[in-house]
Write a structure and sequence with these properties.
Blueprint (H helix, E strand, L loop, with lengths): L1 H18 L4 E5 L10 H7 L3 H4 L10 H5 L2 H12 L2 E8 L5 E12 L5 E10 L1 H56 L5 H24 L8 E3 L1 H7 L1 H8 L3 E6 L7 E3 L1 H17 L5 E12 L10 E10 L6 H6 L17 H11 L3 E6 L5 E8 L25 E5 L3 H13 L3 E5 L2 H10 L4 E5 L7 H11 L5 E5 L13 E3 L4 H14 L16
Parallel strand pairs: 6-8, 12-13, 12-14, 14-15, 15-16
Antiparallel strand pairs: 1-4, 2-3, 3-4, 5-7, 8-9, 9-11, 10-11
């Protein structure tokens, strides 16, 4: 009776396995020979039981996988580890491929000896294709969002720069008419200069938003920095705003660029003032915090200084708060803001290794916090001092080679240098500059960086090889130079004559007289 019940149970189990059509379920002997076959296997792989039983299961693999030994490796892993599972392409009877999930389990006798393997395979081709289609759709959405963001960015840049160009072109046009009649053109020149400086500031903000601005990171005392800004803040914000500060007695130094940090604080203070059209109080305070691993996704573990600017203004609702860091998004009136202030501060904070947070509610003001990393121990003070060496006099007339592929920029640079009393040779490409250096001797080279054929950094490398000791100043509007050129003197475009003169003085004082190339006969610069 018991034997009959057992046979009945075995038959029912075999019937169950044979009836499953969503899974290929079959048995293998210890070397991988197929010993059983169900309807699911027939549906997935296309073989009838009479065609496949007795064959090795390796025929379901591609030729490349068989050569790589994947079938025998799967059986070995299942036998040693007790289970094997993997996904990959498998081959049907008609030669087509399908994406399969395969699980292999060893079957052992009561004494532990290996009898064979149970193999279960699922066809995941449709799921894989659906996932790929979903990923492609997501990528398309992301690309659409990027295009939309680029459209907003370029539209905002075009709008702001067109306004600035209108001032520059209009002022210079009026100045040209006025000077022809002997009139005073000072006001128009001042207007054009002010518009140009606003354009330079807009460019710096865009670079900061793009995290491409070059920073000079060093240890900065936030308490001293804000204290030194007191007069500037009061003059900038006006008498209708009271500025209060609250700092602990001691505060660790932060690792940041002091110039950009000062600009960031000024931006936040101006935003705070604009949020209080009827006046009010601005609080600048700082606290020190330690961030544990996993505590903040936007910050690495370590010590941070939270430098906050708080206003008593109108505050922001949730929708405005979510867009506050978008480029060119502003709640100010037309002409009263570029919408890059917070984006610039956010980019600066991230470049320093920190973050920016905003807390605000309608009617309860806004708190904008800069999270800046605590500066590492400063070892620079222990560096040995080098003996002083004689340097070139700053006011000594020099022979300078100016290099730029833009004729207008080259003419302006040469004009500034000549006004400073220097003799100037001009080259419109790096190749022309190298040829001129073979024919004449100069004291210094001022070169643009972004030039076709050979960049300014590449030109400086060649000059260093051929004429070691010849100073090269790289003038660039780009935020970054090649890493090996980062130590070279750099002049950011646009620059004024005073900035150019200061750079010349610094460079010539840093090059001892006996390191410079001595001038012999000079060709006519004309």
């Amino acid at each position: 009776m018991t034997r009959v019940a057992s046979d009945y149970t075995d038959n029912r189990f075999e019937l169950l396995v044979q009836s499953v059509t969503d899974y290929a379920i079959y048995m293998l002997d210890p070397v991988g020979t197929i010993t059983s076959w169900n309807m699911g296997a027939q549906r997935f792989k296309g073989y009838l039981a009479d065609e496949i039983v007795g064959q090795n299961f390796s025929r379901f693999y591609s030729e490349e996988d068989r050569i790589a030994g994947l079938p025998s490796r799967a059986l070995h892993v299942a036998q040693m580890d007790g289970r094997f599972e993997a996904e990959g392409w498998r081959i049907r009877k008609d030669g087509t491929r399908f994406w399969a999930n395969a699980v292999i389990d060893p079957i052992r006798a009561p004494d532990g000896s290996l009898i064979g393997f149970a193999k279960i395979t699922r066809d995941l081709t449709e799921r894989r294709e659906a996932q790929r289609a979903l990923d492609e759709a997501r990528e398309a959405v992301i690309q659409t969002q990027k295009i939309d963001a680029i459209g907003k960015l370029t539209g905002g840049v075009a709008h702001d720069f067109n306004n600035l160009l209108a001032v520059i072109v209009g002022s210079l046009d009026l100045a040209r008419h006025r000077i022809a009649n002997g009139g005073d053109i000072t006001r128009y020149l001042d207007n054009a200069m002010a518009a140009a400086e606003r354009g330079a500031m807009l460019t710096q903000r865009m670079l900061a938003f793009a995290r491409k601005q070059e920073l000079k990171l060093q240890s900065v005392d936030c308490i001293a920095l804000v204290g030194d800004m007191a007069n500037m803040l009061q003059n900038t914000l006006g008498g209708g705003v009271a500025i209060n500060t609250h700092f602990p007695l001691t505060l660790s130094l932060v690792h940041a660029d002091p110039v950009q940090l000062e600009l960031a604080v000024l931006n936040l203070a101006v935003n705070a003032r604009d949020a209080m059209p009827d006046g009010g109080r601005i609080l600048i305070d700082a606290t020190e915090s330690s961030i544990a691993p996993g505590e903040r996704p936007d910050l690495s573990p370590g010590g941070y200084i939270r430098l906050s600017v708080t206003d008593e203004g109108e505050g922001m609702d949730t929708a405005t708060l979510q867009r506050a860091l978008e480029p060119f998004f502003t709640t100010k009136g037309v002409g009263k803001g570029t919408g890059l202030g917070l984006s610039m501060v956010h980019g600066f904070a991230q470049q320093c290794g920190g973050s920016l947070t905003i807390s605000s509610e309608p009617g309860h003001g806004t708190v904008v916090s800069l999270w800046l990393p605590v500066a590492p121990p400063d070892l620079a003070s222990h560096a040995p001092q080098q003996a002083a060496r004689p340097a070139v006099q700053a006011d000594l007339p020099l022979v300078i080679l100016a290099v730029d592929d833009d004729d207008l920029v080259l003419m302006n640079t040469a004009g500034m240098l000549e006004e400073l009393g220097h003799t100037v040779f001009q080259a419109s490409s790096a190749a022309d500059a190298l040829q001129m250096l073979e024919e004449s001797r100069v004291d210094l080279v001022v070169t643009d960086h972004a030039m076709p054929g050979m960049t300014g950094a590449q030109l400086a490398d060649i000059i260093q090889q051929r004429l070691p000791g010849l100073p090269v100043i790289i003038a660039t509007g780009f935020a970054e130079l090649p890493s090996h050129s980062s130590a070279r003197p750099r002049l950011d475009k646009p620059f004024r004559q005073a900035e150019l003169a200061r750079m010349l003085s610094n460079v010539m004082h840093s090059h001892p007289a006996d390191d410079l190339i001595q001038i012999t006969t000079l060709p006519d610069p004309k």
